[in-house]
Amino acid sequence: MDWAYFLQQLINGLTLGAIYGLIAIGYTMVYGIIGMINFAHGEIYMLGAFHSLITFLICQAAGISGILPLTLLLMLFVSMVLTSIYGWGVERVAYRPLRGSFRLAALISAIGMSIFLQNFVQISQGARVKPMQPLVEGGITLMESANFDVQLSYMQIVIIVLTFVLMVVFSLLIAKTSLGRAQRACEQDRTMAGLLGVNVDRTISTTFVMGAALASVAGMMVTLYYGVIDFYIGFLAGVKAFTAAVLGGIGSLPGAMLGGLLIGLIEAFWSGYLTIEYKDVATFGILVLVLIFRPWGLLGKPEVEKV
Question: What pLDDT, in 10s, does the model give residues 160-204?
């Protein structure tokens, strides 16, 4: 066994899994509060990627793209702000009017919003793929062998470290702040939380905004890492991030990140050692097995319904 090749696939899998994990946190936060899946979340991630690319093109036209730290900060800030606005809009348009309706209505509304956002970007930005020149280049050679050199790029380091930092920050935010207490109260009983003074509408909107901000970071990281995006990238990434949230335990932030890392590793190792055509089959096949034997996920808790 070539350990250098194994280590390279491990690095690739962790990088991809970190991106899936960031998107999956948005799914699990929304589900934890309103008990529904935001199927437009993949398109929110896609919008974050386009916002970062458009911001870079504006910086390039303004002649400041050569100042790399400033350009990256502007890309991150603009992408998070604009994408958060879209996340807030999805909650106001697709979810809030149907909150008291039957559960299937909000699901259909979210799918419709997903299709709308896809076609909106396709019409406004065109259907062709959008390339982007590499901004963060170079890396570290971790291991050299006769057949293979293990490379850890600076972009991979940024993705993994930034994901870990955001995971810690959002976990502390939910566990230690008044907003986090309001979110946990709404998760347990929205009616009682409202009676006790929690602004339920604002708490739910803030949760959508937070999830959209994380998705925008993932979109920017994908734009910088792969250097090419299109209007359809949100669909498959959204499905896999949803799978990660279910795999780790829907409603659990650490579970969402764990599920994302596992799916990234499965894809990387399956593509590296077997056949790349069936990597998605392997991912969803393992999900099926987990749902059969542990339907509440790896870190989730089984729900006990009180009668």
Answer: 999 999 988 988 888 889 988 998 898 888 889 899 889 999 999
How many residues in total does the chain contain?
A: 307
- Per-domain residue ranges of the chain: 26-235
The structure's pTM equals: 0.91
Using CA atoms, how far apart are residues 91 and 49, in angstroms rounded to an integer?
20
